[in-house]
Amino acid sequence: MSVLSFVPGLFALVAQWIGVLAMRGTKAKGWWVMLAGVCVSTSGPLLGIIATLFGEFFGASGSLGPGVFFMLLGLGSIGGGLLFGIGFAVHALGMRAAAERQAQLESLTAAMAEELRVMRAGN
Q1: What is the pTM of this model?
Q2: 60-92 pLDDT per residue, tens
């Protein structure tokens, strides 16, 4: 397997880290779930490297075999992506609610301005 096969996944992981770290200072909802997902996604490949080193140094023996262990590590990485997606959906729902509230306040402000204009025209 070539090193270049990891580049697209690395770009996605870096983009996720940048997005989560940019959101940490805001009052956005869901960024904790996104952070957990990115941490799990990051730990998957790192644990794979550590498992490979331990397997080489201490001997890879066991009833399940090393293939199952690497498969479980891969599922953990996919689970991290799923957690990130859930956090992103929660964040999007919060942004939609904020946009709806902003639209309500803008229409209320416009109605109050119209009422003031009518009151001033009547006097």
Answers
A1: 0.67
A2: 555 556 666 667 667 777 888 899 999 999 988
Domain residues for the domain of 70 are 3-122
- Is 20 within 8 Å of 80 (Cβ atoms)? no
Cβ distance 31 to 24 under 8 Å?
yes
Domain tally, the chain: 1
Sign (positive or negative) of CA dihedral 40, 42, 44, 46: negative
Q: Name residue 4's amino acid.
A: L
Distances in whole angstroms, Cα of residue 78 to Cα of each of 9, 15, 112: 11, 16, 51
